[in-house]
Amino acid sequence: MIYLILVASIIVLVYLVLNFYPVLGGKKSQESLRRINDSNNFVNSKFRNQIPTPMDMNFKDTIKMFRQMIKGNPLSKPKGGITVESMDPKFIKENEADQITWFGHSALLLKIAGLTLLLDPMFGKSPSPFPVFGPKRYSTKLPIEIEELPAIDAVIFSHDHYDHLDYGSIQKLKGKVKQFIVPLGVAGHLVRWGVDPQIIQEHDWWDEFTFRGLTLASTPARHFSGRGLGGRDTSLWCSWVIISDKTRVFFSGDSGYGPHFKEIGSKYGPFDLTLMECGQYNEQWAGIHMMPEETLQAQMDVQGKLMIPIHWGAFTLAVHSWTDPVERAIKAAKQLGAAIATPRIGETVYIGAEVYPNSTWWK
Predict the structure, then answer these.
(1) Can you give the three-state secondary structure of 16-60, one letter per residue?
(2) What is the pTM of this model?
(3) I want to staple 320 with a disulfide (CB 3.0 to 4.6 A). Which of 136, 308, 324, 334 is the partner?
(4) Ranges of the chain whose pLDDT falls below 50
(5) What is the pLDDT of residue 18?
(6) How far is it, in rounded angstroms, from Cα 147 to Cα 149?
(7) Any domain includes 329
(8) In this predicted structure, what is the pLDDT of residue 146?
């Protein structure tokens, strides 16, 4: 009897969490489902990558990964945390130069053609549906608190994973944002969290459109998606091209290496600035997260002039040393003759400037 009560209690608890815990996200609208089913990238009820991307590890690789996790890495996160540069709200609002400011991981503030955009603004303390159990942010504060940010012209998301799309951040941001731009299937999360459906755009790969004078394109990535149970690959993941009259920016989102980078470079390059995934990798999941050397090859493929490595510097989501991504990226950049900027979190980089941050601040 005790066993049956325990099992029943667990079943009820799981049911309540899946149906009433908003962090897990929301359901897709009928219009969203229609567009998803019409997509060439949606096959057998799942979105798929351009090339085969197996993610199921064999028994040997699974054991190897568990051994790595159990052993741990004393250098997997900075001792004592890290400090960040503080941002002045007045500076953000009044400085009209094309610029980018990194918030750690893949969260960025982009000013281009006088517009203020946020890319994957995960500002929470932990990239987990249950933050008390998840990995913690290295820094104790952000460069600027969400409440201090000026009005945001658009928020752009690459996909719906917890380290990119954060419930708590949206709750604080939604009153400041004029437009949300997301991949197919992601809007339902925002709507459940109180965002007006009228200010959400969903896009498939290779959709090209204008937004307040900018040309934007949702471009492919090699990854996957999903929140909660049963939602894997039912929404799309993507990279983004952002173009003004004088500046071209590429945001890779999360991606393994693949032929899509050359396709994007051929169609939209060269880029003045690229924001390229570089971190949280492992040989066991190389198809969905690039190794740093692959990141630099992708930079060459898209014809990028200056690259900022992202997807590192905020959380530990893999077993490599926390500085390994940027150090390997710098080494690969030197070998390829590529320009790479290494701003501190909160330090502004001016797009097109001859001088850019290149200090080894993590040391």
Answers:
(1) HHHHHCHHHCCCCCHHHHHHHHHCCCEECCEECCCCCCCCCCCHH
(2) 0.94
(3) 324
(4) none
(5) 59
(6) 6
(7) yes
(8) 96
- Cβ partners under 8 Å of residue 358, min gap 6: 340, 341, 342
What is the DSSP code string of 265-278? HHHH--EEEEEEE-
Distance of CA 172 to the CA centre of its chain: 18
Residue 38: the pLDDT is 98
Domains of the chain: total:
1
Q: Which residue has the tokens 């997260």?
A: 289
Residues in the chain: 363
Distance, CA of 341 to chain centre: 18
Amino acid present at 247: T
Q: Are the C-beta atoms of residues 157 and 181 closer than 8 Å to each other?
A: yes
Rounded distance between C-alpha atoms, residue 43 and residue 231, angstroms:
15
Nearest CA to 50 out of 279, 274, 262, 273 is that of 262
Helices 324-336 + 292-301 axis angle, to 10: 40
* Domain CATH number, residue 184: 3.60.15.10
DSSP helix/strand/coil, 345 = coil
Q: State the burial class of residue 327 (Cβ atoms within 10 Å of its Cβ: 0-12, 13-18, 19+).
A: middle
Compute CA 240 distance to the chain's CA centroid, rounded to the nearest angstrom: 11
| CA nearest neighbour of 234 among 192, 188, 280, 190 | 188
| Cα–Cα distance measured from residue 204 to residue 200, given in angstroms and rounded to the nearest whole number | 14
- Residue 269's domain spans which residues? 72-350
3-class SS of residue 79: coil
Whether 227 maps to a domain, the answer reads yes
Residue type, 276: M
Residue 239 lies in a domain: yes
Amino acid at 303: Q
- 9 in a domain, yes or no? no
Structure tokens at 45: 């009820």
